[in-house]
Amino acid sequence: MEYEKENSIVEMMQMQFPEAAFKVKKERRIEVRLPSARLYDFAVRMQKKWNFLHLSAISCVDWIDDGEFELVYHFWNYDEKVLVMAKIRIPREEEGDSHFETISNLWQPAKFFERDIHEMFGVYFDGSEDMERFILTDWNGPPPMRKDFITREFALNFYHYRDYEPQWLKDMMAAGEGNE
Amino acid sequence: MDEKMTQRSVWEKIAAKLSKRSLWMLHYCTGCGAIELPPTMTARFDMERFGINPMVTPRQADILLITGYLSVKTLKRVVLTYEQMQAPKYVVGFGSCTINGGMYWNSYATMKSLDRYIPVETYIAGCMPRPEAIIYSFNELIAKIDRGEANSWKDYYNNYDFYRENQEHTFEGPIETYNDIKADAALFRI
Questions:
Q1: Could you report the predicted ipTM of this complex, rounded to two decimals?
Q2: Which residues form the domain of A129?
Q3: Most CB within 10 Å of its CB: which of A79, B101, B144, B183?
Q4: Structural domains counted in chain A
């Protein structure tokens, strides 16, 4: 049978979390969509019972048309060699931070991922010890990885550009060459 | 350049003759251009034949070589480093990133022109410049020192308000510097 190992893991998890939607994407890759309130319970059980000891990453996707952020938690099991992607959706705040609960008390490295997501997307993780800025220490603008942040517009307004209009460029533009 | 800056005493001319062959370079390597420096320093192109050697601390260095792009975070370190260096000091902007942003021209996090934040003596154009270009610009710098024209570091004391304003515009509020630039300017009688 195809994906025997993955299907047995899904079956085991489905008994504990009947409301979650599981899907075997391919070999060693399992995707699960959860209600956001159940994520913490899921993470506790992953670590303590099911031996998913390694939190590879937390990533964030900005679904601006749905008005939601998607947080993706990647859990890895060293014994079974299976990666579980737990996906949840939280409401997207137009102004200020969205909020979600932290899992940094379960995995220490989650602090770095959460700090990164906070400054890049504006999702604040409640209950974390340290939500200081991580990479963008001197950043004053809106979270730059959001879809409604127009990078070029911000850069053109914020930074000073050197004036450079040599004669050869003017001649080229007059002849109709060049794209802008 | 006004008359006063070009007039030099005999001692200043002798000092320039001597110091032009003894330059210590602090290389700030955050960008990719740093990979051109090992061949420049070592046997193939041999920077040392012009009297230029790498130095590890800012306080003993004469040249600050900025290799490549600067983000807001690294620019703050560069400003602190530059202010620690003792005059006369020469900044060399390396690569097109320091000139107009280079390939990061529309990035939200990188500087577009270095000379808004610290005075730059020489730029090396290119993405990235070959060791020959680095050697060429160092020779230009040596010639400028000899002629007494390498005075961009005085501009930092003269126009400190301009540089400070640009720095504070980029950083979130004023930055903590360890040097009192205005007091230093009085010390140099600029």
A1: 0.80
A2: 4-135
A3: B101
A4: 1
